[in-house]
Queue: 4 jobs
Job 1
Amino acid sequence: MDHSFDPNQFLKTAQDTFFKVQGAWNKQDTATLSRLCGTELMQTWEQELSQLRASGRQNRMENIALSSSEISEAWTESGQDFITVRLQANLLDYTVDAKSGAVVSGSDSEPIHFEEYWTFSRPVGPNAWKLTAVQQA
């Protein structure tokens, strides 16, 4: 429906969002996450961050290296455009005690490789995209 849509430009935007989300998550920056994400996903992430804070912990993701990304599917449904992007990356993913900084889970030295599918949506037409779902492969 959007004749100005450029798949390559969208992929760059998705990659940029990937890094912005990781950075905002590390800072527990819910304002930035809210600008990038849809309401339902944001509610889930706010619960996760709240549980981390309540337990005195902080999740950290560092040394992020995006190894590949590609659009895996695109569709329109009920007046919304959807695009899913497959992302493969390596990073350090670990949780620390907020007071001492001690690692309580994960590793701050051994990177993990992961693959996720990030789905973005927007009202049909040349509107702004929001991240609405993240699924682990």
Job 2
Amino acid sequence: DCIPTAIHVAAALLVAESLVPALRHLAAALDAKSREVGHVVKTGRTHLMDAMPVTFAQELGGWRAQVESGLERL
């Protein structure tokens, strides 16, 4: 019983000490890059629809939102 417990404790520590800070840094980096190149317009990716132009700020903001959502779940 001590091996499964040790694995769970190690995983919890790694999430708290390594993964969460790394994801916070990633979200901040995406936010900074969004402000830097956010005005640039690119072709949006769609499936079976006409592509709509989007800005890099919209694209990077979506990625940042996914990272922050993952942080909340952790």
Job 3
Amino acid sequence: AEYDQFVGEALAIRAICYFDLMQMYSKPYHMNSGAGQGVPLRLKANKSAAENDLAPSTVAEVYTQILKDLNDAEPLAAATHGSTSLNITRIHKNTIIAYKTRVYLHMHNWAQVVAESAKIVPAASPFTATSGVAHTLNANYANIFATPNASAESIFSLPMTSANNAGTQNHLAHYFGSGSGESYYLASGAGSVVAAMNGADARRVMMATVGGQLYLTKYRDQTTRTDNPPVIRWAEVLLNRAEAIVRAGNAVTQSAVDLLNAVRTRSYAAGAYTLGDFADVNAFYDAILLERNMEFLGEGIRNMDLMRLGLTIPGKSGGTFGTVAAIPNTSQSYYWPVPDSELSYNTLMTPNN
């Protein structure tokens, strides 16, 4: 049983890593139905430089492997690790199911998002996981990120301690706080989400003005760098399910609105939607994408949301680092180029342009 658990964790971690590589170095799945160039699928260990050469797989082939790894891992994984800290930082069944909802969302396979999320999301509030680890929304948004990062909302995070943490300029409190100036674009630069946030929203409260500019404060430990980087949270699973229900059925339903409201009203109690607030499905999509932008600000999800829907990455201006141009989905800059180091060591790899 312990061996199976380790195998399940390894498979799930490989799937997560390949999914992240695809977000950086390949066109989104929905472009050409996955026929574009992906990355090399290394499914066995390199033991010598002679094994460096490996041709890239297609986007569809890499996604097929990601789902195979996750599906193979699910029956091997433990239902729970018995403690909150381990359930956050070790793979279990609900981690795998939750991550599959993200993968299928990027594939526009709405029916599978609905099917996977139905394994653990109940039909009605309070939306606490029905099996395995009892994931649920934390009643207080700020407490999700408070030390020791032990919220039941956290499905998977990377553990950090004072003795084992990110480098001095690689921790989240540095990037998104006033120490670097970089998060100004996220929080208050032109095209930011702040203008759409009510002042009473708990997510708006978790920002601070320094030197006349607004920064995120959800990551707080500048000194010992112990903030756990979140990989996936329960709130995302609920919003994934809400969006997929509407896209699969091409109709706004009360169940989808309830899921959206569960996340929204946790931070902004007066902001509940009614079914009548949505004139059509597009109005719902706009609302849920806005909610995701506010909910996951600084958690690495916004750019993935833009790319999975083929939306332009908006430009920014007026910040410490000057103007950044908008990037349409037709631009080569929509995703990262293959690094020169990969092209040098792997002669079968080709540029992804």
Job 4
Amino acid sequence: MNITYSKWIETSETAEQQLEKLLGMFTYLLLQTGGDIDDVLEIMELLDDRYQILGDMTMDEFIEQMRAKGYLDDKDGKVNFTPKAIQKIRTDALAEVFKGLKKSDFGNHETPHSGRGIERLPDTREFAFGDAANIDLTQTITNALQRQSDIDSFNLQEDDIRVYETEHFASCATVLMIDISHSMVLYGEDRITPAKQVAIALTELIRTKFPKDMLEVLMFGDEARRVSVNDIPFINVGPFHTNTRDGLRLARQLLKKSRGKNKQIFMVTDGKPSAMFDDAGRLFKNSMGLDQRIVNKTLDEAVACRRDGITISTFMLARDQYLVDFVEEMTTINKGRAFYSGLNKLGETVFVDYLNNRRKNFRG
């Protein structure tokens, strides 16, 4: 048998690298379709027909590879994705956000306050009653020896003791609000998938790096509902209006459960408030312009958040003038922050703000 080897090219992909790319596409499509495995496989088959994304593999061989790696299994005669596939979505979402972050954007989020904390620094200071036993033995003994000439009569005094400086680490309580109104997929632009990616990545960041932080995720359309971490990939938009007031109300209720001082709401939206519940619990809707009745009630919630020490950061996915006008007013009233973020930079913008807030919001 004759074997012919082609010339090595630096950019050539191994079979494993190609499979990893296909797996990334597979998990992204799972996120985009809200977990509809049949749609995912159909889309990949269409892409293969047009662009030969599977290379030498058939679709059946690709599915078998996914089974072998533990991302797919068969139940009731149907192909299903596994918990391992969901974990892959989480790690891919986190990696996608961090890919665009500069090294200086990410750290351990130390506060600028030093004192009786938990993380040891190289600097030292004089001992104070109540300090933990972070004693710098070398400097302490040196101080004692410098104070006395006779080593045989060595004695240690309180003024000789030096302790390491320590650093406080802030904890944050955050509610991420995701707009699921119809405009998030209007005019063929998919805004909901990047929003879900941010939610998934933020939960993975906190789970792995800041386990003491609290993060809740809620979606708001005609009404606001809390979403469990495991259900974030399956969020879908609907024929909904934008009940920002109900979202802020629920977020404020969730943050009241946190004992920490640093409380914040991250709101990802592309539309102005266009709905609210009236005093009788009926849904009042108006999509035309800025309805002052809806706006006023929504701004009341922003004020209530400020009084509860909750800062609102709004990430706008559109430049609609009604949205900009509302966000500017709400930001002023709440003393919060507002960002216009393109879809490609949404994750980076949210992450940098989250990390910066952990640094500057801590009060020792």
